Amino acid sequence: MTLSNKKANRGDHIDRISDLPCNVIDGILKHLTIHELVCTSLLSRKWRYVWNTVSQLVFCEDFFSRFEDLDDPGPEINRTITDVLFQHNGPIYKFTLDIPLESNFLISTEYLNKWILFLSRRGIKKLLLFNYGTLSDKVPSNVFSCQELTHFWFCGFNLSVHPNFCGLKSLLVLYLLNNTYEFGAIETLLSGCPLLKELTIEILQDIKSICLEKAKNLIELRLMVNHERVSGLIKSLPKIQRLTLESYVSGDKTFYADIISPSQLISLKYMKLEGVNLAERGELLYIVRVLKSASNLVELVIQSYSDNCEQEPYQLEELGCNSCCFSQLQTVNINVGSDNFKHAMSLMRFILANSSSLKTLAFKVHFGDKLDPVALLSISRDLLLMERASQRARIEFTHRE
């Protein structure tokens, strides 16, 4: 064997992975599943304990699928997650537990509380708990011991907050999805989060009102409504800059006008409305009232796919909407279904005529299974002829089947 061959042969046994910089190794490990992560201990002696220093752990569908063949997977799942946590050596900054929908993977409340207590002592900053199978479970009480928590997502629980709750003083982002709420629980929780900047709430039940007065630093709110009784839902809204409203209530009428009064939106810079019905007089007027109240609004996004649009579109002049000036509005994005485009055109005509700083109006129509060439030609012609208060305004019209 030649000298060069000997060198090449020795090179085949070099552990190049272990010689990578620590930050590169950490980046690789973060993208592995729990099973793959633990299996790295078999690579070599150097890697035997590398897995248990990773700063984020994710238990999701891939993890749970390995227990599908067991008659009663709960105890084995509880034991496995406990073993992984208690063998971990170092800080855990992010922890995700995502129990799959329609599964029999029941997590013991006792174990869940134990895990979160453990995480609270390891500097947990981002905690994601998705419990789709057991909606009646209460949020684990030890969550409120995680004083370094900055991001908290929880789904599928019943939220109750102990009267002695001392707050989550570092929390910046909070997601409340698919939960039920005891009376006053949301306000009590928010009152203990003085730094909170971003809040997402999904409403599934009859809640009289939510007072956000104490969320002084809140700048972004996303509200998803799946319940009909929402009159006066949001009270004392702080000076938020970004607002997203989504309504999934069945029937012809949505309730945006009842959720948040336009008078509370004076500092708004971005607004997105999903599920709005532009054929409803009240919904159309609500958008106009928001535009008039939110004098700092820069971007407006509207998604409207209602198929109950047999009536002729309202003309804004008929509704008492006199000329005004939206001096800060620069971007408008409107997506509609094929049965709704005439109502959107009426709104766009009003916006174009009153937005002196407008740069882009993007209009997308979803025609479904049948593309209508006549409608396309009519829309293109009408858009070109619309009066524009801004000489820089550019209209981008797109469509898809």
From TrEMBL:
Question: Which Pfam families did the record assign?
Answer: F-box (PF00646), LRR_At5g56370 (PF24758)
SMART domains xref list:
FBD
Q: Which Gene3D superfamilies match?
A: Ribonuclease Inhibitor
Q: Which residues form the F-box domain?
A: 14-67
Q: Where is the signal peptide?
A: none
- Residue ranges annotated as transmembrane are none
Q: Which domain of life is it from?
A: Eukaryota
Q: Which SUPFAM superfamilies match?
A: F-box domain (SSF81383), RNI-like (SSF52047)
* Entry-linked InterPro entries: F-box-like_dom_sf, F-box_dom, FBD, LRR_dom_sf, LRR_FXL15/At3g58940/PEG3-like
Q: What is this protein called?
A: F-box domain-containing protein
Q: Which organism is it from?
A: Trifolium subterraneum (Subterranean clover)
